[in-house]
Amino acid sequence: MRQSFPDSRAKTGLGMRISLALLASTALVSGNGLSRPAAAQEASTLYAVPAGPLGLAITRFGERSGLQILYPADLVRGKQSPGVSGALTAPEALSRLLAGSGLTYRYTATDTVTIMALGATGASNTGPDGSILLDTISVSGGGAATEGSGSYATGAASVARGADSLKEVPQSVTVMTDKVLEDQNLTMMSEAMAKAPGVVAATDGSGNPQFFSRGFTITNYQVDNLGTAYESTFRPDFDLSIYDRVEVLRGAEGLFSAAGEPGGTVNLARKRPTDQRQSSVSLAYGSWNNRRLEADLSGPLTEDGRLRGRMIGAWQDREYFYSPADEEKQVAYGILEYDLTPDTTIHAGATYQHQNGIRWAKGLPTYTDGTQLGLDRGIALNTDWSTRETTTWDMFIGAEHRFSEDWTLKFSAMRQRFDYRYTELSVGGPVDPATGVIGDPGAFSEDAGNHSDAVDLSISGRFEAWGREHKLVAGADWRRSDGKQIRNLYETSFPDGSLTIGDFPGLDLPPATLTGATTGWPAYGAKQQGVYARLDMAVSDRAHVIVGGRYGNYTHREIAENRDEDGNVTYRDSSFRWRETGIFTPYVGVTYDLTPDWTTYA
C-alpha cells in the first residue's frame, strides 16, 4: 500500500533552530459559501480567470488558490462561468466563479472544497460527518505541491505521470513532503533517502551517496521529471532547501526513465513561485559547530500577478565528530514564472550548489588478524590536505498549455553539470598488531565531471468512452550525458618510509606530490531517446487497467586510458560501445479500490 511519514521528531544533528517568517498579504471580507474555516482562507490572491466553461474556470482557480476542488463531472458540464479577476480571497473568488450557475460550495477540509448544487447541503447524500457523498468526482487544483499544506502525506506525486492520485499508481510510492523535511530537519538528499522506507542509504568508496532498493542500485534520478546525470560516478548530495518534496517510486520504471536498474526512481520537485508575497529566514546551530542559514523570497512581480518569481539561498559550515574533517556549502536558486495567457504558463530558472572541505571517506582498517583497532571515535585517519570540492549547476525552462479542463500539453528542458575534484590519503590496508605499521598506504586525487541535457514533451488528459472516463498520457523525450573521470597518482613521503597507526591524530604529513601518471576514462557518455504512452482504463467503478509502452534507442560509449609520468599513453581502449535500437518496453498494471482510502494493485 502507500507509505506516509507521520513521524515529526526533529533530527538531532541541529540542536537549536530559529525561524523568522515575514508574510505580506491583504485581507478582505469573504463572500458567501458554506461552513469554511474562519481564518484559513482570508489571505487575498491575484486572480485572472477568463469567462468560459465552468470546469475550466474551476481548474484555473484551483491552480491559483492551491485548493483541491472536488465535484461530479456532470455537475459542471455545459455550464459557463463569468470568470474572476483582481485581488480576492479564495471564498470570494470562488463565489464569483459560480455566480449564475446554480451551484455553491463547502469547505470539507482546510485546503479542500466540494462543489454542489444549491440546496444540496441537507440532501440525503450528506454523510454523518457532514461531508458530501458524491459519485464520480473530478479533482482540480492543488496538484502535487506540498509546501504550505502542513501535511505529512499527499495524495499525488509527479513521478507518477498520468495519475491524479497515488491510488492510481500500481507501484509502491513514498512522498516526503515539505512538512516532513522541515520537521525532521532533513536538509540533504542523503538524509531524506536514509528515512525512505525500502531504501538502503550508503556511500561508495569515494564518499559519494549511493542508494539501493529491492536489491538493486537506484540509477534513475529526476528533477521535475527530467532525467539527470546523477547516476554517473560522481554523485553530489543535493541540498533540499530548494525542493518541495522528495518522491521515491520503488521497482522498475522503464516507461518514463528508459535505461536503468529496476530498483526504483527518485524525483526531486523544485519549489515554485507563490501567488502571494512571502519571505523567510531560517538560522540553525547544532553539534560539532554545525551552522546553517537559509533565506527564501517569493511572490508576484507585477500588479496583475502574471509574472512571479522566487529566490532561495542557503549556506552551511560544519565540522564532524571526527577530525580533521569539515565542509562549507553554498546554494542559490532562482526561478521566474509567467502567464502568457490564461491558458499558457512558462517558466525558467537556474540552480547552483558548491561544497568544499576536508572529507574522510575510506573508513577504518583492521589489524591483520581481523580484529578492530579500538580507536577513539573522534580519530580520523586523515590529513588536512585531503580535500573534496564539488560544484553543481543547472538551467531549466518549461511551458504548460491547457487546451481545456481535460487536456494539457507540457514541455520541459534542462542542462545540468557536475564537477568533482578531490585529493585524499588512503590508509585502507591492514595494520600490523606488533608494530602498528599500516599496510600499503598511498595518496591519489580524482578530477571528474559530467554534463547532461534533457528534453521532454508530453500531453495528458481524460476522455469518455464506453460510458466511463479514462486517462491518457503520451510523449517523447531525449537525453544526452557526457563525462570524464581521471585519477592522478601521487608520491608520498611518510616518516622513515612507513606510516603507523600511532601517527594519528595530529599527523603532520607533507602534502603528496603528483607523479604525472594518470588512469581512468577521459571520455564516456550515453544518449537515449524514445516515445511513450500510458492509458488508464476504468473497467468498472473500482477496477482500473493501466497499459502502456515505450519505444526507444540507447547508446553508450567509453574510452579507458592510462598515462605514465611523462604523459605518454601506455594503454587505451575505445572499443567499448553499446547500441540498442528499437527497444520496446511494455507496461501493464491493475488497481482495485477496496474502499475510498485503500487500493490493491498488481
From TrEMBL:
Main location as per UniProt: membrane
Topological type in the membrane: Multi-pass membrane protein
GO cellular component terms listed in the entry, alphabetical order: cell outer membrane
Alphabetical UniProt keywords: Cell outer membrane, Ion transport, Iron, Iron transport, Membrane, Receptor, TonB box, Transmembrane, Transmembrane beta strand, Transport
InterPro entries attached to this UniProt entry: Beta-barrel_TonB, Beta-barrel_TonB_sf, Plug_dom, Plug_dom_sf, Secretin/TonB_short_N, TonB-dep_rcpt-like
GO terms assigned for molecular function: siderophore uptake transmembrane transporter activity
Subcellular location: Cell outer membrane
Domain of life: Bacteria
Ranges for domain Secretin/TonB short N-terminal: 67-118
Transmembrane stretches, start-end: none
Classification via Gene3D superfamilies: 3.55.50.30, TonB-dependent receptor, beta-barrel domain, TonB-dependent receptor, plug domain
Family, similarity comment: Belongs to the TonB-dependent receptor family.
Name assigned to this protein: TonB-dependent siderophore receptor
Organism, as annotated: Cereibacter sphaeroides (Rhodobacter sphaeroides)
